[in-house]
């Protein structure tokens, strides 16, 4: 019964862990980051009524504040990229900078981090990449979470650095999703426009090809 209660409260009873609590500063910092970023792995959650009430009010203020921070961070990135929203209308340098932005961000947030997680956590590269994308996309299944293996000894700032990486990775991936959504929307609008033009041209051609029907004159 004690083991089950500990498991429900986020403590892993397997292995020999010297960590006296799962609510030390590093874990608490990581938990706070998963709350304001709406990832919510689910492996760690407040169990007392006071902690749950505080978590609700913390999320009410923390989530909008984090969204505002990510918005400002995204605007700062856009300023250095000659505004991502107009890169299609400005070929040349803007497209080159967009390619550099995508390549650099992919390396920093999607390629190199799985290598670190694979080394520290003992995962395969595929598992590390899976955790990276699921985290930065705020899906957060909770099947893979860093710093939870009781048989490993992590440095104190490991999870805190991971939380900081998550915040900046969210800003980058959000910009990528926005660019992708904008391109898809423009493609669909162009496709629908072409489809409407084809229907209009087809209707006009049909009217021109049809012979004029003879009119019957009925005397009064």
Automatic annotation (TrEMBL):
Domain Potassium channel: 19-75, 107-185
GO biological process: stabilization of membrane potential
Entry-linked SUPFAM superfamilies: Voltage-gated potassium channels
Subcellular location: Membrane
Keywords from the named record: Ion channel, Ion transport, Membrane, Potassium, Transmembrane, Transmembrane helix, Transport
Pfam family, one: Ion_trans_2
Primary location class: membrane
Top-level taxon of the source organism: Eukaryota
Gene Ontology molecular function, alphabetical: outward rectifier potassium channel activity; potassium ion leak channel activity
Transport as UniProt keyword: yes
Chain ranges passing through the membrane: 49-70, 96-116, 128-146, 158-181
Protein name: KCNKG protein
Organism: Vireo altiloquus
């Amino acid at each position: 019964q004690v083991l089950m209660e500990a498991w429900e409260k986020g403590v892993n009873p397997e292995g020999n862990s010297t960590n006296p609590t799962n609510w030390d500063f590093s874990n608490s910092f990581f938990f706070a980051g998963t709350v304001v970023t709406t990832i919510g792995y689910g492996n760690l959650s407040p169990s007392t009524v006071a902690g749950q009430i505080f978590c609700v009010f913390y999320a009410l203020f923390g989530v909008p504040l984090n969204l505002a921070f990510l918005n400002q961070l995204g605007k700062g990135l856009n300023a250095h990229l000659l505004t991502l929203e107009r890169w299609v209308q400005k070929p040349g340098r803007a497209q080159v900078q967009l390619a550099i932005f995508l390549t650099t961000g992919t390396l920093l947030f999607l390629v190199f981090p799985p290598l670190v997680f694979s080394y520290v956590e003992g995962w395969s590269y595929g598992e590390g990449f899976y955790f990276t994308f699921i985290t930065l996309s705020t899906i957060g299944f909770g099947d893979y979470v860093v710093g939870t293996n009781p048989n490993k000894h992590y440095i104190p700032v490991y999870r805190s650095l991971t939380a900081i990486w998550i915040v900046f990775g969210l800003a980058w991936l959000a910009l990528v999703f926005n660019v992708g959504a904008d391109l898809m929307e423009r493609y669909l609008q162009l496709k629908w426009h072409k489809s409407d033009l084809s229907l209009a041209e087809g209707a006009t051609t049909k009217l021109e090809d049809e012979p004029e029907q003879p009119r019957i004159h009925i005397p009064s």
